[in-house]
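Bumping my old thread because nobody answered last time. Still need a sequence for this structure:
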């Protein structure tokens, strides 16, 4: 089983992200030379933000901003259908090129997480994208206020916990957070996806982005690797 790629950063990754900076800078109206100049810093910051030793606290005030008082119309089945429709989507040889990364880099949330974690938007073009995938599915289905959005798995989990939407029971449509070594602390989290079902045999079926060889895939995972679950507020 391939470990999720969240901590390793190399010169080649920095170079690839620098090339991507021109693309995203153009889309965002940012000077390309300026974006390229600080891409290395952005990649390092985005990578450091995903390392368990990096303490980035999820602030309750920010978390509460995504609560919704409007009627919730999106169901777990609709979210899972959207996630399943992405199965087979793959990153390119540079570890980027997905619509999930491109969407996130151009989003309002990217500006907020850059302010929180440092770096720049272009760094997300080649960054680990499992949490971006979950966030994109929420956006596309209209369930973002329930699913949350972040590029950093630990912060995404802390958002659920801060909004009293965290637990240890697998439910269809729940957002599941993993630690490959079996750790149970939020700071141990390395990967995220959606729960399809509890198989009642010590495993769960999931749909995940940036898994295997950098694809969206349906997987079966042992519950021993689950840190916990975030529970979006779905329509019945």
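Sorry it took so long. Here it is:
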């Amino acid at each position: 089983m391939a470990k999720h790629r969240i901590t390793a950063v190399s010169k080649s990754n920095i170079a690839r992200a620098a090339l991507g900076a021109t693309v995203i800078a153009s889309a965002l109206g940012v000077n390309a030379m300026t974006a390229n100049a600080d891409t290395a810093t952005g990649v390092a910051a985005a990578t450091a933000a995903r390392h368990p030793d990096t303490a980035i606290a999820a602030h309750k005030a920010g978390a509460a901003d995504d609560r919704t008082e409007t009627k919730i119309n999106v169901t777990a089945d609709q979210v899972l259908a959207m996630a399943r429709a992405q199965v087979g989507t793959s990153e390119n040889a540079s570890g980027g090129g997905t619509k999930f990364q491109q969407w996130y880099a151009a989003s309002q949330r990217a500006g907020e997480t850059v302010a929180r974690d440092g770096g720049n938007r272009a760094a997300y073009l080649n960054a680990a994208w499992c949490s971006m995938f979950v966030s994109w599915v929420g956006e596309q289905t209209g369930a973002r206020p329930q699913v949350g959005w972040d590029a950093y798995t630990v912060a995404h989990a802390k958002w659920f916990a801060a909004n009293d939407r965290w637990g240890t029971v697998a439910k269809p449509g729940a957002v599941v957070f993993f630690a490959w070594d079996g750790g149970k602390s939020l700071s141990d989290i390395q990967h995220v996806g959606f729960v399809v079902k509890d198989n009642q045999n010590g495993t769960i079926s999931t749909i995940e982005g940036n898994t295997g060889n950098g694809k969206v895939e349906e997987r079966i995972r042992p519950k021993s690797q689950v840190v916990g679950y975030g529970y979006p507020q779905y329509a019945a």
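The two ends are 35 Å apart (CA to CA). Let me know if any region looks off to you.
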